[in-house]
Design a protein that fits this description.
The protein is mainly β. 12% of the residues lie in helices and 37% in strands. The radius of gyration is 16 Å and the shape is globular.
């Protein structure tokens, strides 16, 4: 677990050190929206985390955003329609009081600065398997980002 951030540039084929995350973490969710990298959850020094932050690649600065409603570790991140999805993982009940959250996700909307809870997603006995449903959106997003960078 650490807060160090190393950034790879496909344009220069080089790695450079960026500003460290505000909260050191491992096993967290991450996704890119525009020029910003969103991270949430994961494992801290002594516990699972519900905290979240965003990295602005243009200013090399991390900003704290509101925490999720649940702690989550080993969770998955995805960007979809300009929103940051944090899906499943290992977690404990935190502020929602209506039972376990095995098949859930939380979605951060940068425009409103708030999270919303998505219950009852498709899952097997251990993890949520929404990637097959999200894969077309993820691939489309990557395609547009690569085009904007001049790779395609």
């Amino acid at each position: 677990m650490c807060g160090d951030v190393i950034v790879y540039s496909a344009l220069t084929n080089q790695w450079t050190r960026a500003s460290s995350m505000k909260t050191p973490r491992s096993w967290f969710a991450a996704a890119v929206i525009g020029t910003q990298v969103y991270v949430a959850g994961g494992q801290g020094k002594a516990r699972f985390l519900d905290s979240a932050e965003v990295y602005d690649s243009e200013t090399d600065t991390w900003y704290t955003i509101p925490s999720m409603g649940n702690v989550r570790s080993s969770c998955h991140g995805a960007a979809l329609d300009g929103q940051f999805w944090v899906i499943a993982g290992e977690y404990n009940k935190n502020q929602y009081d209506d039972g376990e959250r095995k098949g859930s996700a939380e979605v951060f909307d940068p425009l409103t600065g708030s999270w919303r809870f998505i219950p009852d997603m498709w899952l097997d006995s251990h993890k949520v398997w929404t990637w097959l449903q999200l894969l077309p959106y993820i691939l489309t997003s990557l395609f547009y980002q690569w085009c904007n960078l001049g790779f395609l």
